[in-house]
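sorry to bug you again but im stuck and you know this stuff better than me. theres a chain ive been looking at and ive put its sequence and its fold in token form underneath. id like you to explain what the token line says about the fold, in plain words if possible. anything you notice is useful, everything is just below.
___
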Amino acid sequence: MKGAGYYSKATGGAKDVIDHGKSLVLGAIEAIGQTDNTRPFTMSDMGCADGGTSLDMVGEALCAIRARWPERPIQMVYTDLPRNDFSQLFQMVHGLTDVESYIGTVDNLYVMASATSFHQAMFAPATLDLGFSATASHYISDRPCQISDHVHMVGASGEERRAYEEQGRRDWETFLRRRSDELAADGRLVLFNFGIDEEGRYLGHTGGVSMFETFNEIWEQFRDEGHITGEEYLATNFPQCYRTVEQFTDPLTDKGSDVYASGLRLDHVETRVVRCPYERDFTENHRDADRFALEYIPTLRSWSETSFAAGLSADRAPEERQRILDAYYTACEERVRQSPEGHAMDYVHIYLVLRKD
């Protein structure tokens, strides 16, 4: 993700996803039956980025934890990859930005971070009480192959599509086994995952202009016009896998799976579509195509730019790489400006609540 607070400022929809699912987090806290007040209660936000999109929810969750266990120390652990902007995260949490923070509203609270991938072990066994993650677990640990005619697995077919789905399956089961080992007895996981719903909808593909198709068309145009090479086009593959409800739940319901054997159980699953706030504002309020393009493209750029940058040759000078990326998003902006109808990054999520039996 882009740092320096860019992500949370540009992705109001990701905050909406979390805020709309807040009741699932609070319900999970209420359902935990632990009575040990001496051991710290540990909550995590896994794949936290700069922490801004979850800040309000985490504040409410910590207050609910404190209400249930008045004397218990609370550890709030933010996790993301080593290259994440943890400085911005802590500025956000400690109220050093223009965003109101929960810090100071909960006593006996200890906030910390771990720069460890959620594909690996992050907590000591049986110490995690409430694990939360939103809009993060679609990232896979490795790209299994190059996609010959697209930038994302949703546009892949045949063996290439199957390779991404298999990588996604392995990584999801690894994620679940790791978290099961880390969860304390009767602990909970609340996960809001990008996915493919029962109607075949996914992020930016809900009936209008397909976002990933637009990404690919413009990147192909850059290749055909010589702005990037054919090798760079092939090297541009988002390290993501969007899973169906069945792919998410199979390891949790199959009594022969290692995940089920570990004691992890499915309490709740549902799909939700959260409307793109920038498209909604354009459609229902201002009808200004220039304004829509200027507000909409940054939310796409906040999370997609790193994947396009990764496809560019390391032999290019940093300034040249940045010029290409700037030109690419300018082209995306111009396409939206010229024909704004139908463009939207609606969020399609599979909401899961899991418990450690």
User: Anything to note?
Assistant: The chain has one domain: 6-356. Residues 6-356 form a domain with the Rossmann fold fold (CATH 3.40.50.150). The radius of gyration is 21 Å. Strands lie at 41-46, 74-79, 109-114, 128-134, 183-196, 243-244, 264-274, 347-356.
